[in-house]
Amino acid sequence: MMPWGHLVIGYLIYSAGLHLWSQRSPAGGPTLVLAFATQFPDLLDKPLNWWFGILDGRGIGHSFLTMVPFCVAAYLVARRYDRGPLGAAFGVGVISHLPMDALGALLTGTVPERAPYLLWPLFPAPTYPKDSFWDHFEVLLATLQLLPWNSPVELVSILLGPELLFLLVPFSVWAYDGFPGVKTTVHLLTGGRLVENEPM
């Protein structure tokens, strides 16, 4: 799944959870932590692979056996410093990432064969073709070159057609919640600090 897909799914889960259990919308601080956390497994595993040759892009950061204890520990540390909501948002963001990268394997019950990284180190991490950040960038450039730039209508339909509903739903939920994270970002950029009950 692409980064924005992880962000969307993580936010929808987090917002729904807060509305169901606390009858409130997400606050700004936890929303920003959540946004970072939805990318955390890739931010951990990809550089380990690209720069140090450790595993193959999915391993330590994509395993329930490593990430669940890590998130529990992060929550307990955050709660100790009266930042429990930030720790909870981090946990939701990280854990929501893992099944989305292996949805097909989970639905078909073929995790050991198709997504062994979910249970690393009980199962070995998969061996993907060796790549790097630049390999991914070259693929992106090649994909962009194939788009019909000379036909604006076709270009918009390709870029937005299948994705429009996928983007419209989370944007509507974010709007309903009061766009949490926007004011907090401005606050941080002007020298404030991140707290769990930061205004939207």
TrEMBL record:
The entry's keywords: Hydrolase
InterPro entries cross-referenced by the UniProt entry: YdjM-like
Domain of life: Archaea
A GO term, aspect molecular function: hydrolase activity
Pfam family for this entry, one: YdjM
Protein name (record): LexA-binding, inner membrane-associated putative hydrolase
Lineage, uppermost ranks: Archaea, Methanobacteriati, Methanobacteriota, Stenosarchaea group, Halobacteria
